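To: structure desk
From: M.T.
Subject: fold request, one chain
Message: Could you run this one when you get a chance? Sequence is below, nothing fancy, just the single chain.
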Amino acid sequence: MSKIAAIDCFTVPPRWIFVRVTTDAGATGWGECLVPKRRATVVTAVSEMARQLIGQDSTQIEQMSQMMRRGAFFRHGPILGAAAAGIETALWDLLGKGLDRPVYSLLGGAVRDHVRSYTWIGGDDPANVVDHARSRIAEGFDAVKMNASGVVPAIGATQWIDALVARMASLRDAFGMSLDIALDFHGRIPRAALKQAIPELEQFRPMWIEEPCVPEALESIDLLARICPHIPIATGERFLNRWDFRRLLERGGIDIIQPDVSLTGMHELAKIAHLAETYDVSVAPHCPNGPISLAASLQLGFCTTNIVIQEQSLGLHYNKGYNHLPSGELQDYLTTASVLAAKEGCIHRWNAPGLGLSLNEDHIAAAHQEWTMPDADWRNKDGSLAEW
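Reply: Done. Structure tokens follow.
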């Protein structure tokens, strides 16, 4: 029985929080946390959870997951969720390596040979989408996602709607229906503008519209489901657990959920996906994150029937010095980058143990730095705060 000897965090460019769990036998497993804008707080949460876990049997993953999530009177929230998720993923990596088996084989076994993947175009305030999409198609992708817009006013959004419709039209004119296009509203579009925009988008048949409202305003989902009967609605990247998703699924109107393994953890994401299956809802895991998070998401995609497509961050605008952060890419911390490479828009299953990554641990240690990712601080024209 190997016991946990140390849990360490490495915060590396461009905005990723890696977690390493080391056993008393010297074995290591790796995980990844989300919430980079609260980097220092997440790192502190990991260190506080580590005090509870040092000396525990590293194979007792579910027990430790429960300890991290239920072992305190005040619990939940994205900071604690992210910290627990990073540690839990590292424990699955450790277990798989110790048994010489990939994690997907420990969670039910493979159900597919590859997972379809999509990539980003357009940036935070979308522009040059046709050229960007053309380059992504050249890379082999047949599905992309773009932000719907930058800041949108609550009323008087006609110009914004016209610009969005023009962008979608330009993509359809260039590529027809050969390219699947998802629209990420990011919770930033006021309800009044959505009611006007959505009917005009139906003609373009988006793959889905994502986060049309913030998680606090789920009542708007009910309305949007009524006025948007022909476009799939996706959401869930800010949700943490089965209870959050159950309340969402019970409302109806949601066609695709998007849990993020760096918030939920691996086992919880699997449970969420199985719950969604009982509602005939598909899963498209959220993952504009680093290589460890992507590998963990893919392990679940390989063994979970209703995971239908996987987000990934290669070439994402956030990786290119966003908001004065250092630049970095998915392959920077891998000794073999090919395992995460998409071929013809798909990432193929591998058989390496654990998460299946070969990480350059020396480079991770050398790249560790205390960067700060500032809040976007988007504003309406009158100076009031706008959703980012």
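Reply (cont.): The mean pLDDT is 94. Let me know if you need anything else for the meeting.
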